[in-house]
Amino acid sequence: MKQQLLRPIRLFFAILTFISIAFIFTDIWQLLSPSLSRSLLFFQFIPSLTGLFTGFSVFAFGFIVIILITFLFGRIYCSFLCPLGVLIDLISSVSGFFRKIRYRFTPPKNFWRYAFLAASVLSLLSGSMLLIDLLDPYSNAGRIFTNLLRPAVIGVNNLISGILSEIHFYSLQRVAYHFPNPVAVVFPLAFLMIITLFALRRGRLYCNTVCPVGTLLGLISRLSVFRIKINASSCTVCGKCVSVCKSECINVNNLEVDMSRCVGCMNCLKSCNFSAIGYKASVRNKTQEFTNVDTQKRNFLKKLTIGGGAIMSISARHGYSPYNNRKAGSIPVKKNYPCSPPGSLSISHFTAYCTACHLCVSVCPTQVLQPALFQYGLEGILQPFLDPGVNFCNFDCVACSEVCPSGAIRPLTVEKKHVTQVGKVHFIRQSCVVYTNRKDCGACSEHCPTKAVQMVHWQHGLKIPEINQDLCVGCGACEFACPTIPYKAIYVDGNPVHLTARKPEKTETNEGFNPENDFPF
Amino acid sequence: MKRRDFIKASLAGGLAMGTALSFGQYYPLFYKSVPPQDYDLAAIKGGSPEAMFDKAIEVMGGMKKFVKKGQTVVVKPNIGWDVPPERAANTNPALVKRIIEHCYQAGAKTVYVFDNTCDNWSKCYQNSGIEKAAKEAGAKVVPGNTESYYHAVEISNGIKLKKAKVHELIMESDVFINVPILKHHGSADMTLSMKNLMGVVWDRRYWHLHDLHQCIADYATFSKKPTLNIIDAYRVLMKNGPRGTNESDVKMFQSQIISTDMLAADAAAIALFGKKPEDVRYMNLASALKVGEKDLSKLKIARLSM
After folding, report:
1. Of A40, A242, B214, B236, which residue has the fewest beta carbons closer than 10 angstroms?
2. How far is Cα A229 from Cα A268, in angstroms, rounded to an integer?
């Protein structure tokens, strides 16, 4: 086979991956079904790996396939299937139109890349997803799409829709957008700026220095069956391949390619006029292995044991209970826990497996799912929670549970959702407009899908809310609808472990008009 | 008198009388029964929503009386909740469809349908069956989900509600047809024509915060009133309103009420529900603001059955 063809094949997969993943995050028209969206994420390494722990499903095989491919051909994932990798390549090629980037070989930054990998693994072992959430390439791409690209798509959509509605053409609908907490915008923006800076000068520096997935696959790539090699007899040492290698891993001085950093973009194969560089089956030379002892890595591993232990002991000793957050100042509404999405079983399950990719935030039709600030504690930053300040959870909707690629939110049927209690309603009578103003309101009860909030007769012919926590599913409709300011008179406090709500009973009714009779007027 | 003169005189006299009759409204001199156009309210029972509407609107003078050729019409059903038609939380889609068809037959240029929903709007439009039914009848289904569709107006006669932001279609359309569903309502007791108008404004929280009943009555005084109110009482939510919890909350009334007077229509529907109009506070407040006539004994009512 002509190896020159590998580059167009890579481009095809890269474009397909990028467009499909960018689209599922920005599908403001809800054209794709949640299950289709989820299927398109089959090959995403971290969510698939997480899926292994959250319930064995077909999605947990995605990362195994990636590992097998890596064993065969190296880090194909990074150039073919990683949305962040493709985004970096995209930035490089766009800037290439203005100023040609000429890469040169650089030695690997082993301390940094293994430090990031080790710290991620250790923080994971100590029960925190924080570093994975902040470094995982797929989730970072997801956050860029959700918090930067999606608002732009909505803006353009609404602009066009606004112009069309002026001429009474209403087929393109305006989409409401709620700005998330600033961190959810600033973090992806800063991240995008950093990878752009890297991309403009140093290509895949992020992938080979920071990305824990890249480093992990890099370790596997050292053992790959097929490897990119330079044929010393036909190589003219012209350096063309070096100048197009965005991993900066081709060393023409010793004619070696560092497979632990090669992202499999196939650019070098095309650049060579003499076909001197290309994939070759590798029979590994044992003696060579042992002479190439990486002392840097050994020293690093030693340091790591100490450092890692320190990190673990800090997280353990800190005893940070993330769910006891009270906002600063004396706040009448005291929530002990946020509500995690229905299907997430418990706050601890959710925070342990959510990679904060924000796909659920993107597909949530009411936007009640918002990236957290410190609602789950520092470790759960940017993981989504139900924010009744923005909206409430639609009773019949299970979209988030259907799209979640990591299994942090497990699939729910609508029937199961109807009795899944993510939190419980609390009522502060002294703060209620009926109590303070002696006027009817009832907005909370109106919106309640299970009538866990009922209006009951009170004094002066008025009706006041009465709550029944057994019926409550914690959707937050009452809290959202409550008109009192600045604090709500009715609110939902999250359940740390989701419970089962009672189903509203069926009761017969015989009052009212019977069409067999005459009109009562 | 010659035969020829007699014929001439008779013809002239007949012409004169006919002309006079056609200029002046002298029908009552010749008919004992009141002509159909003069009913204040039509109540009908025992048929499908479509058939009941066909008959009742004919008795009220036909849709041509309310919709003129080339006019734009906005039909405002209750699409507040993400539930199917059997749950009776939203207006019956078959009725909405039939109303739109009548509008087009009467020569309407365009018919628009929208509501400012409580649950997620696209799910409400979809699961209520109204989006599909309205589109089948050729109406334009318009969203009401973002504030930019709403424009500030003054409610000059309002007591608590002096300002509101009203959907542009209500302000711009020639004809406004209000199509509420008769329902129990936890906070407003009953939801009917006047309460249904909460779905044409943006800032509803203000109403809840500043005496809901008074605000409902206040908004009913606003100059852009419904041309026609058609109350769907086919399936009726008897309790746990306005959303309901399951199908056991629903009872078949198989009825419909049509009136140009919101207060009259609401009073009749409240009577069907088994209450007195005076039991609902906003009815008294609206009556005090002279929104319409709530005393059914003072109205000319066509009582029809299928």
Report:
1. A40
2. 11
Q: Which residue in this structure is represented by tokens 């994975």?
A: A132
Q: Give the chain A residue whose CA is nearest to the CA of B173.
A: A168
Q: Quick one: chain B helix, strand, coil %, rounded to 5?
A: 45, 20, 35
Helical residues (DSSP H) of A136-211, grouped into ranges: 137-144, 150-166, 182-202, 205-209
Mean pLDDT value of segment B189-196 = 94
List of residues 6+ apart from A293 with CB closer than 8 A: none
Alpha carbon distance B238, A461 (integer Å)? 20
In this structure, what are the phi and psi dihedrals at residue A369, rounded to the nearest 5 degrees? -80, 115
CATH of domain B29-305: 3.40.50
> Which residues on chain B are in Cβ contact (under 8 Å) with A481?
118, 205, 208
Give residue limits of the domains in chain B.
Answer: 29-305
Amino acid at position A277, single letter: I
* Beta strand pairing call for A256-257 and B140-141: unpaired
Residues in chain B within 8 Å Cβ distance of A512: 236, 238, 251, 253, 272-274
Interchain pair A440, B242: CB under 8 A: no
Reported as a single tens digit per residue, the pLDDT across A73-112 is: 999 999 999 999 999 999 999 998 888 888 999 999 999 9
Distance (Å, rounded) from C-alpha A167 to C-alpha B78? 25
- Which residue is listed with tokens 């696209």? B122
Report whether A497 contacts A478 (CB < 8 A). Answer: no
Digit-coded pLDDT (tens) for A369-416? 999 999 999 889 999 999 999 999 999 999 999 999 999 999 999 999
Taking an 8 Å cut-off on Cβ atoms, the answer to whether A442 and B301 are in contact is no
The whole-angstrom separation of Cα B82 and Cα B306 is 31
> In the prediction, which pLDDT does A318 show?
41
Q: What is the DSSP letter of A147?
A: I
pLDDT digits (tens, 9 = 90+) for B253-277: 999 999 999 999 999 999 999 999 9
How many angstroms separate the CA atoms of B292 and B283, rounded? 10
A272: number of Cβ within 10 Å: 21
- The residue of chain B with its CA nearest to that of A464 is B187
Using CA atoms of B120, B122, B124, B129 in order, give the dihedral in degrees to the nearest 10.
-170
Write the residue in A394, A397, A446 that is nearest to B242 by C-beta. Answer: A446
Interface confidence, given as ipTM, is 0.84
- Long-range contacts formed by B55-58: CB under 8 A, 24+ apart: B55/B304, B55/B306, B56/B256, B56/B258, B56/B302, B56/B304, B57/B102, B57/B258
With CB atoms and an 8 Å threshold, state whether B140 touches A168: yes
| Tokens coding B260 | 């140009």
Nearest by CB: A483 against B145, B209, B305: B209
3-state DSSP call for residue B128? coil
